[in-house]
Specification:
The complex is a heterodimer of chains A (137) and B (337). Chain A is α+β, with helices and mostly antiparallel strands. Chain A has one domain: 2-Layer Sandwich (Heat Shock Protein 90), CATH 3.30.565. In chain A, 38% of the residues lie in helices and 34% in strands. The longest helix of chain A has 22 residues. Chain B folds into two domains: 99 residues, Methyltransferase, Methionine Synthase (B12-binding Domains), Chain A, domain 1 (Orthogonal Bundle); 218 residues, Phosphatase 2c, domain 1 (4-Layer Sandwich). Chain B starts with a helix and ends with a strand. The chains are: A alpha+beta (137), B alpha+beta (337). The structure holds adenosine-5'-triphosphate and magnesium ion (MG). Chain B: It comes from Salsuginibacillus halophilus.
Chain lengths: 137, 337
């Protein structure tokens, strides 16, 4: 992965900075306005979770590429990392209709939908790391 | 972006420009038709906003910057709707899956019920069992034995739907595993009570009426476990009486004893067994009276036992506005004249 920029999330300001970093990178890679909005929404959700449940952590944004059938594929990768309480039952939180806030559609399943690739690693008591990629089409 | 999307984009451009030119109702009708297509193709709202903006930019090259930027704002707002829509879709798919699983289970459950109706000499039997939803918490059963006795059971699991249906399959299994030799109704219930108490979840209760009709002597011996009383129709008196049997609901006490009752059945007399879905039928005016049921039965008494239960069901169904609130089971045994 090439250069990666990280933003610390500890306040709501951090959430906005993380969005800004994601927006800049998305534009730079060449994403259109719809995908930009999807990427920033995903970042918001991940950053808010850090802010709400782990108190602090960081969001890193980077460009990734992969060799595909039609040449090199470019994408944007979000990594959200914290050493907070972790998530006990990942399967449960990834199920539709689970979010505690009753927030329709968003939450972690929403992030998974907005992005092309989604990976979550979490250990109770140790923290959570979520990686998500959006590929440029 | 797929071909379908490009085609939609082209169409949107066309109908929007048409509308802007003519500003008539027909143009808006096109918009409404378009929205169906968009949903069909699972295009999310934020994509529609972006589609709108790009079409606008083409048609009005000098659209004010502020207006243009406001679409970015709208786009961000619409993302949430897009997600909610997708979640709704996936929940709908899951619901369809569950429904089809329940259909399979309901078909399986049907096979637990007797496939035919016994036709012993001099006795006319009719039965109908209809679940309120797909699966039933009612159960009925016939046992023929070599002593010319026909055993009949009618049971009602307290509760409805899938949990009641699971419990109902337990009862079927329990009845099948009772000792081979014929049991008197009271002993049979005591036996079954033990099985239920030991094997069925403690919050599941079953009421049952079990009777044994002696086809040669024309006697009916029966016992009940907290079950809805039935009726006994005496042809000579031309009257209905309650057919009740005292006994505790199955599954509450480990050791329970049941009282046995006997009736001598005269020609033309009949026995009506039912589940509480029959008597607890609710109309707009409230619960119907038990007399209402006997009135309905009386109206159809000239028919065969099976036709009687069918007609009573149809009329009760109509009274309730074709909405069953509880599983319905009705059984009639009539000594032929
Ligand atoms: N970084 C995290 N650390 C600890 N727990 C987390 C973290 N992220 C999510 N969770 C847990 O997972 C649950 C689900 O998160 P998700 O974002 O899907 O929904 P939500 O935050 O409850 O509601 P919404 O995001 O829709 O407002 C949270 O309620 C929280 O318990
Ligand atoms: Mg959240």
């Amino acid at each position: 992965m090439s250069s990666q920029s990280c933003v610390e999330v500890h306040t709501e300001w951090g959430i906005v900075s993380a969005r800004q970093a994601g927006r800049n990178k998305a534009k730079e890679i060449g994403f259109g306005n719809v995908d930009q909005a999807r990427i920033t929404t995903a970042i918001s959700e991940l950053a808010r979770n850090i802010y709400l449940y782990a108190e602090k952590g960081e969001i890193c944004i980077g460009e990734v590429s992969e060799m595909g059938g039609a040449g090199v594929k470019k994408g944007l990768q979000i990594t959200a990392k914290d050493v907070g309480p972790g998530i006990d039952n990942i399967r449960e939180v990834m199920a539709d209709g689970f979010t505690t806030s009753g927030g329709l559609g968003a939450g972690l399943p929403g992030v998974k939908r907005l992005m092309d690739h989604f990976d979550i690693e979490s250990t109770s008591g140790e923290g959570t790391t979520i990686t998500a990629i959006k590929w440029l089409r | 972006m797929g071909d379908a999307y490009l085609r939609l984009q082209e169409q949107y451009r066309k109908i929007l420009n048409q509308y802007l030119e003519n500003k008539n109702e027909q143009g808006l009708y096109h918009a409404q038709q378009f929205s169906k297509k968009v949903l069909e193709n699972q295009i999310s709202p934020e994509e529609v906003v972006s589609l709108h903006l790009s079409t606008l930019e083409e048609s009005f090259p000098d659209i004010p910057k502020g207006a243009q930027d406001s679409f970015e704002f709208l786009l961000e707002v619409m993302i949430g709707y897009g997600l909610a829509y997708q979640e709704h879709q996936s929940l709908k798919d899951r619901q369809r899956e569950l429904e089809s699983e329940i259909d399979v289970a309901a078909n399986m459950q049907q096979t637990f019920l007797p496939s035919g109706i016994p036709e012993p000499e001099d006795l006319d039997v009719g039965v109908l069992s209809v679940p309120a939803s797909k699966m039933s918490g009612d159960y009925y059963h016939f046992v023929h034995d070599e002593n010319d006795c026909l055993g009949v059971a009618i049971a009602d699991i307290i509760g409805k739907g899938v949990p009641a249906a699971l419990c109902m399959s337990m009862i079927k299994y329990a009845m099948d595993s009772l000792p081979e030799q014929r049991l008197q109704p009271a002993d049979l219930l005591a036996n079954l009570n033990r099985v239920v108490e030991q094997n069925v979840a403690s919050n599941m209760f079953i009421t049952m009426m079990y009777g044994s009709y002696d086809v040669r002597a024309h006697t009916f011996q029966y016992a009940g476990a907290g079950h809805e009383p039935g009726f006994y129709y005496s042809a000579e008196a031309d009257e209905f009486e309650e057919l009740s049997a005292k006994g505790i609901v199955l599954g509450i006490k480990r050791h329970a004893e049941f009282r046995e009752y006997q009736r001598v059945v005269a020609p033309g007399d009949f026995i009506v067994l039912l589940s509480d879905g029959v008597t607890e039928c609710r109309t707009e005016q409230g619960f119907i009276e038990r007399e209402e049921i006997t009135r309905l039965i009386r109206n159809h008494m000239h028919l065969s036992a099976q036709e009687m239960v069918n007609h009573v069901f149809h009329e009760l169904e109509k009274l309730q506005g074709f909405q069953l609130r509880d599983d319905f089971t009705l059984m009639i045994l009539r000594r032929e004249v």
